[in-house]
Structures are given as structure tokens and as C-alpha cells.
Amino acid sequence: MICVMAENIMPRNSFFKMPKILFADEAYQPLSTEAKVLYALLNDRKQLSKKNNYRNQIGEPFVFMTIEETCLRLRCGHEKACRLFKELEHFGLIFRESQGFGRAVKIYPVDVF
To answer: What is the chain's mean pLDDT, rounded?
Structure first.
């Protein structure tokens, strides 16, 4: 059975993986639930980057997700989206690489499982 979404068509059993360690490990307890959800979205996109061979010069997969897209997906404001990315960086769950003015930032989600 197919579920029709606003952006595209996807199977009903499509889901994001949420690493249990983000809820079980004491080190991640202060991390907000919204940041954990954003991490799951970024990690899902990382799997697609691997499949499409989007990698840097040393072979690490990266993703793109703008602040605006984050706002739309998480239904939050600009400041909150920025704060969530900073939160993920603080906990070492992502690294961001600027490509210069006007170009998208490369995001490297770190594997925790």
C-alpha cells in the first residue's frame, strides 16, 4: 500500500532510524528530543549520500540540509533550527564544513551505533 505525501510518494513502512544510544547513554541525556530527531533525519540522508557516492576527497559521506529545510521538516523557527545544529555539534554528532559565501554547508553526521 502506498501513502501519498505532499512532497513525494513513499511506502507506508518507510521510517527513520533513531539510535537507542541517544536515549540510553547518560552522555546524551541533556540532548533535546528535537536535536535527536534532526540527527535521525541527517543520518537517513547520509545513507542516501553513501548510495549516490556523495563523498569528500577522503571518502567521507556528507549531506546538505539548509536551515530553511530544517525549519520546514521540524516545524520550527530559524533560531531553533540553528540552535539544534549547534547542539548536535556540541555533542559531537555532526561536523559542518563551510564552502564559502552563498554555498551550502556540508554536514557530516557521525555514526554513534
So the answer is: 89
Enter the pTM of the model. Answer: 0.85
Report the first-to-last Cα separation within the chain, whole angstroms.
Answer: 31
AA identity, residue 109: P
Helices (H), 29-106: 33-51, 67-74, 78-90
Residues 41-52 pLDDT 10s: 999 999 999 999
Contacts of 55 (CB under 8 A, 6+ apart): 49, 61, 62
Second-level CATH architecture of 18-109:
Orthogonal Bundle (1.10)
**CA nearest to 66, candidates 91, 99, 90:** 99
Domain ranges, ordered by start, for the chain: 18-109
Please give the C-alpha separations between residue 32 and each of 15, 38, 94, 100, in angstroms, as whole numbers: 20, 10, 15, 29
Instruction: Specify the residue for cell string 547520509.
Output: 46
Beta bridge partners of 9: 4
> Residue 44 is inside which H or E element, if any?
helix 33-51
